[in-house]
Every structure is written in C-alpha cells, then in structure tokens.
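Dear Dr. V.,

Thank you for agreeing to look over these. As mentioned in my earlier message, I'm a first-year student in the group and I'm still getting used to reading structure tokens, so any feedback on how I've presented them would be very welcome. I ran two proteins. I've put each sequence directly above its structure. The first is here:
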Amino acid sequence: MKELVQRALETAKSQLGVREEGENRGPRVSEYLTTAGVSPGNPWCAAFVYWCVNKAAAAEGVPNPFVRTAYCPTIAAWARDNEVLHSTPQAGDVFLRYGTVAGEYRASHTGFVTAVDGSVFSTIEGNTNIDGSREGIGVFARKRVNGNAYRFVRWGDLLKERDELTYKLYVGDHFLCDMPVRGGRSLCPVRAWGQRLGFEVGWNQEEQVPLFDGHEVTTQITLIDGQAYAPVRDLATSAGLRLRVDNDKREVHATRI
C-alpha cells in the first residue's frame, strides 16, 4: 500500500473516540469542517476523510490528491471524473454509501476502508455511531457488508500521476532546492541538504546509506541523474527538524522543533 494511503488510515485510526459536542460541533469536529472549507455545524463525514488525507499529506511532505469537500456527491463526481470509482473495496479506499436524502438518491455517507474479508469490509468513519448512522455522534470503527448501495474511491491510484510534481524546499528562511515527487514522497538531494545544515557528508558503501558527521541516516536512496536523493521527511527526522507543508504553494519548510 502506498505510504500516503497507509498514513491516511493511521491518521483516521488516531481519531477513534472523537465525539461531537453539540450537533456537528466540538473542537475536533469543527477542525475537520474548517479544513474542508465549510463552517461548524454541517454534516462532517466527508470533511473527516479530507482532514485525514490532508494531515497524512502534510506528514509525508507531499501534495494532497483528494478533493477538498464536505459533500459526499462531490467526492462521487470527482471519483467518476478521475475513473477511480469501483464496485468492490480494497483496503485504503474511501467508501461511499448511497441513499435517499430529501427525495434524491445520492452518495450520502463516507469513510475509510481499513480491511476486506469477502463481502465484509471494515471501516473508520466520522459522523456515525455503532449503528452506522450518517448523522451520528463521532468517529467509529465499523463493519459493513458490500452491496448495491456502495461504491469505493480508489484514490491511491491517482498517486501514480504525481511524479512530475515538484515542491520547493526551504530550510529556515532560505530556499534550498526544488524537490521531485516520486511514489508519493518529496525527494531532497542528500548532499545539498547535509551541506546546508553544516554536516560533513559521507557515504556507507556497504549499507548504501548517507553519513552525516559519520552517523548513518536511515532512509531509502533514489538515484536521479546520478545524484542521491532521499525522502525529505527522513532527512528532517534525522536532523531533529519538523516540516510544514503548504500544498497550495507547493512548498515545504524545515524548521527547528
């Protein structure tokens, strides 16, 4: 499973136990809605999905590929347009449950698929309850049985098309380089990073990993035009830095913790 998809599922799991405080409100519920671009008090299952993917993308230092919305039919239309809407689930998909709302049959509830066992799929979903309501009280883990009322958004397939993207990397207030995105991760040239931070940059030939001041950096190296690149998230972690990602500007800022 792609790193971003896995990170989104982990983020969703971290929210189990979140509960509303008032109808479609509460500190975390309001954060979900605001991140998706709508005000507190609105239904929030779709906003929860977007918030999780957005958090995961920021943690991975990559663009958020998911549609920004708090409205399930918008997810359905976007998935159809991108040809990632399926009738059978896979772990990592976003499910859509269809039903009649105000006389209209449409996508009306959503969440993440965490596992599949035959026709049964496990989920983590917001704005639900133990009975699976689309107007529930919090974030729950559930099991559902696939049928005609469900469709599945395989949004991870869109990550294959992101390799041409680049993000600008800033260390402190200084621009360092443009980073290519490969396999859902922003890659930074190892030597330029190490030298910018004042490390003596070396190489462990046997382990095929870089050395900063003689210490190995745990990461996966990608060669681009003969130059060693590594995920900027790994490099920042090894240096004790945190990353802030601006997906709109396609910028990553590395700062001291």
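The second protein is here, in the same arrangement:
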Amino acid sequence: MRKPELADEKGVAVVEFALVLPLLLALFFGMVEFGVILYDQHLITNATREGARAGIVAQDPRVNDDAIKKIVKDNMSYLISLGKGAVASQDPNVIHPTNPNFGDDLTVNVSYQYHFLVASALIPGLGDSIELRAQTVMKYE
C-alpha cells in the first residue's frame, strides 16, 4: 500500500519565522534595555559614592557642596540614554551638619529619570520612564 504524498510545504518555514520573529525581537530589545537600566543604576550609585568620598576626606579646608555636586555630575556624564536624552532630574542633594566633626554623617542623594526606548511599547501600563535613585551615607574622617 502506498503512503499519501505530503502537500507542498515550501512556505512553512517562512510562516513560522514570521510568527516567532516579533517575540525574539521583543526579548532581545527587552534584555538590552534592562541591561542599560542596570548599568545606569550602577553608575549613579557609584557617582554618589565618589561624591561622598570626596566630601568626607579630612583636609583643610573641607570640600564644599558645589565641589561634591560637580564630582557627582562628572561621574554621571557616562549615563546611557536610549530614549529621549534623559538628564539628571535634579541637582545632587548633599546633607551634612553645619560644622562637621569626626564621625558625623555626610549624605549624597541623586535622582535620574530614565526614559524607555522600547520597553514601554512592549509592556502595557509601564509608562514612559522610571526614576532611578541612589543614596550614599559616609562618616567624616
């Protein structure tokens, strides 16, 4: 007995590829965007750490708030923005006592608005951007 011949299947691979391609692109761009968000978060955390470190070092005269803010902003200049050219949403915030003594706290805060490139289109309700924040607290030397 003879088996029935299969129908012509030349276009099946193209149809399967067309069905799977949007999912693969969404996964790829989602991973890239998530990686950029993690990189930016790490960068602003390091920027606050560098600013706080410069501020706590025992020297005469001590580094003023403007110098600490400049150090933080210089370190934030390497941020990656795939979206709308995001910038720091506010100046770094430096909190310390008026006349700091050994062991007093110096706090440096920074906030950064990250604008999505494709994630907001892929995930409904995600919004256009997220706020990344970092805070570092160090003791005066």
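From my reading of the second output: The radius of gyration is 25 Å. The chain is about 45% helix and 20% strand. Does that match how you would interpret it?

Kind regards,
E.
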